[in-house]
Design a protein that fits this description.
The chain is an alpha/beta fold. It contains 17 helices and 13 strands. The chain is about 40% helix and about 15% strand. Helix 6 runs parallel beside helix 7 and helix 11 crosses helix 14.
Length: about 475
Amino acid sequence: MLSSLTIAQAHEKLRKKELSSVELTKACIETIEKVDKTINAVVHRNFERALIEAKKADTQGTFDQPLSGIPYLAKDVFCEEGVPTTACSNMLRGKDYVPPFDSTTTRRLKAAGAISMGKANTDEFTMGASTETSCFGVTKNPWDRTCVAGGSSGGSAAAVTADECLFALGTDTGGSIRQPASFCGCTGLKVTYGRTSRYGVMSMASSLDTIGTLAKTVEDAAIILQTIAGRDPLDGTTGDVPVPDYLSSLRKGVKGMTIGLPKEYFIKGMSPEVETAVRTAAKELEKLGAKVVDISLPHSSYAIAAYYVICPSEVSSNMARYDGLRYGHSTEKQDNLIEYYIRARSGGFGPEVKRRIMIGTYALSAGYYDAYYRQAQKVRTLIRQDFEKAFEKVNCILTPVAPTPAFTIGAHTDDPVQMYLEDIFTAPINLAGVPGLSIPCGFSKEGLPMGLQLIGPQWGEETILRAGYAFEQATEWHSKKPTLK
């Protein structure tokens, strides 16, 4: 099946004229039409324009860039000119918000010749860990449709795993690329804060949000990052640092590399199968020439508490723009402005968004700012310092992505705290601003994928991609596919 090709494989066939972009795009469209009714990964379809762009790519016929003619999906928070972008929220869905501009990421992909086919499902405004809060309904795990795909980039991860596209864009604020990648059995890359531009991507928490990718292999993730990384004058938070040639260093192996195993990431209550899979992966990396050592990240246990003060506080600020007047869900005329705001925002936002706005507003309110928000920022500094000290001794860090494989749909619906704990191994990385890579490392006895997480120092994507590629080439977990009808 053509849609099951990796980017690297498809590029080679396109370059040799063994395949056309139209054929490849049609194959992805056919797969979406066939299987998406069972997984609900795609929420906006842009097939007609995609085929026009694919035909242009074939007419030009050079395919000199590795993403030329390659079809992809973008998480439904990436603005694309002329394409509905709703953040899977009734706040924007009701009026079908259609951006008049492109995000920097989609613009760079367009310049590289990549073909956008539409938007992938997400938790509402990316708030969730399971893609269950979307106004379009839950995305189901391709391996077991009774389980979640993960969140908030669950639609992107499920689409990649189901071969509905060759890659997908996602965002990661507290684990929203890595966790669904682990649950669905694909590759997910969360970059250093500032490595990629956030311009034109709807914000949840501005100091935590990062733009990354879901892909079929580590090599594909490196190809995509090469295109979308780098300084952007439209985003003042992007770093003015060189972008390495990620592909050239992929095959250097891990010989001489020191990898840390933090004791705080192997905790009571986590799945024994997850722990076994990650420790087995550590042994595999040792066989490949790496040195694996035990380390400590002592403030990790405070990460979830700090994250769920900082994140909702920034949510409270970012969501203020959706007032129903400038754009967003509107309501019938009310007696006064306050009543209008209440009705418009109550009708547009779902329960999880409202919960985070309320928590954040409380944490930032007079009399509580110092007790909550300021303290959380102090803890964030300690967590970042833990990683800085660790990277003085190791090249990268190996941990689980999530404490369990994918959970059943509805399992945490009535228990938001339990849902928040799904981010226990991923949120610290966002607080520290360092990169993380999720790759498959095994399956549970129920047949659900499990992932490992490689964490690198600031701007250290090159290191974790290199280690991830070495592990991937020595194992076959990434090549396994679910049966879909």
